[in-house]
């Protein structure tokens, strides 16, 4: 059976949601990176060892869930590749952690104060080429990166053939998140006060390369948008003066560059960003999706931003893991009622956790079908 028509209708539904146009039903998008292998009966070690297995097991989980529109992030990304955007060592299931445990970013001070000068002098790409061997075995890392480059477009096409939209590909990040990972959170936050000019100078050198990576990576993938991450840079963690200097200007540059190239920014923002939501009015209209994890006040988003930025989310992880199906139903019902059916894409907040109860994920999809359709 051809999946062209279902794919086309699902793609149109998501596009209309981003553009604040009426939809026949609020789009439902999957996100459950570690939940899928657990539900489908393979270990996290098997999942982590072979990106093709990861790609296919997420597809199988989505088909098992039934009539959903797509997946938030392109599947099949090997956990070892997280060493790049985190600038940190990664503990892999079946190796540094038990076979059925979640991979872990290992928080440690690896980047030194002197490395700010190296970034400024060498440029970002040259610095990273010399830095990465500190945190990852390049004989393992480079093949994983090459697999991503070669196979992300193929993965997007495979999901399309099965009727599913891949909303975003790994786009990019702002310098704050990268440097915070490399320096460690505690050290980097001190750097912002002890050597702010040096940090900003390094950030300014990094930004053109990070923008180019985001634009080129999203274009090559053929997805609707690019995933632009944020969590350590959240408003709930940083004083306003610091946030306004080291965080927001770089997001504004990134989002504007994506928009100028005809691309949507999927702002995957974990933690609490409520304080600074009004600043998002400076972003281009309807060129972003604010992808939240349940901590930001989603009702404030709609109140302050109205039809400026679409919302994706934000079914909380704790609800999916320890709640009851009726709790999930109620959350989805109230979310759709309070923020409205236009400009909304239903999705697990951040990522459905490894201990998500299958009946809760199924309730999320069923509730989306029940409450996402306008009353007759």
Descriptive account of the structure:
The chain has 376 residues and is an alpha/beta fold. The chain is built from 17 helices and ten strands. The strands form two sheets. The chain has an eight-stranded parallel β-sheet. A two-stranded antiparallel sheet has the order 3-4. Helix 14 links the parallel strand 8 and strand 9. Helix 9 packs across helix 10.
Secondary-structure map:
Elements: H1 4-18, E1 29-30, H2 35-40, H3 44-49, H4 51-65, E2 70-73, H5 83-86, E3 89-91, E4 104-106, H6 114-122, H7 124-131, H8 138-161, E5 165-172, H9 175-183, H10 185-194, H11 196-221, E6 225-230, H12 240-246, H13 248-260, E7 264-269, E8 288-292, H14 298-305, E9 310-315, H15 317-322, H16 325-339, E10 344-348, H17 358-371
Parallel strand pairs: 1-2, 2-5, 5-6, 6-7, 7-8, 8-9, 9-10
Antiparallel strand pairs: 3-4
Descriptive terms for the model:
376 residues, alpha/beta, 8-stranded parallel β-sheet, two-stranded antiparallel ribbon, 17 helices, 10 strands, 13% strand
């Amino acid at each position: 059976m051809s999946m062209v028509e279902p794919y086309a209708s699902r793609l149109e539904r998501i596009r209309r949601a981003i553009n604040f146009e009426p939809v026949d039903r609020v789009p439902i998008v999957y996100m459950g990176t570690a939940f899928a292998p657990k539900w489908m009966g393979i270990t996290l070690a098997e999942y982590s060892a072979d990106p093709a297995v990861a790609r296919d097991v997420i597809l199988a989980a989505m088909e098992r869930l039934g009539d959903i529109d797509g997946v938030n992030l392109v599947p099949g990304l090997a956990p070892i590749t997280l060493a790049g955007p985190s600038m940190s060592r990664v503990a892999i299931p079946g190796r540094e952690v038990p076979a059925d445990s979640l991979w872990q970013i290992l928080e440690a001070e690896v980047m030194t104060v002197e490395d700010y000068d190296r970034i400024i002098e060498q440029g970002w790409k040259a610095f990273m080429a010399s830095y990465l061997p500190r945190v990852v075995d390049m004989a393992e890392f480079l093949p994983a990166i090459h697999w991503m480059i070669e196979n992300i477009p193929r993965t997007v096409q495979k999901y399309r053939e099965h009727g599913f939209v891949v909303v975003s590909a790994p786009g990019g990040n702002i310098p704050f998140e990268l440097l915070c990972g490399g320096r460690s959170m505690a050290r980097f936050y001190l750097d912002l006060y002890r050597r702010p000019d040096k940090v900003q100078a390094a950030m300014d050198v990094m930004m053109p390369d990070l923008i180019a990576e985001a634009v080129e990576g999203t274009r090559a993938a053929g997805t609707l948008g690019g995933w632009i991450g944020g969590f350590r840079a959240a408003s709930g963690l940083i004083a306003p003066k610091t946030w306004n200097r080291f965080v927001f200007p770089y997001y504004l540059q990134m989002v504007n560059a994506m928009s100028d190239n005809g691309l949507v920014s999927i702002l995957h923002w974990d933690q609490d960003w409520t304080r600074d939501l009004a600043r998002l009015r400076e972003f281009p209209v309807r060129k972003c999706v604010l992808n939240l994890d349940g901590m930001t006040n989603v009702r404030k988003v709609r109140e302050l931003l109205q039809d400026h930025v679409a919302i994706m989310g934000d079914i909380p992880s704790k609800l999916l893991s320890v709640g009851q199906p009726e709790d999930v139903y109620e959350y989805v019902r109230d979310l759709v009622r309070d923020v409205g059916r236009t400009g909304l894409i239903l999705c697990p907040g951040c990522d459905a956790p490894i201990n998500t109860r299958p009946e809760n994920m199924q309730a999320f999809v069923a509730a989306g079908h029940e409450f996402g359709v306008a009353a007759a």
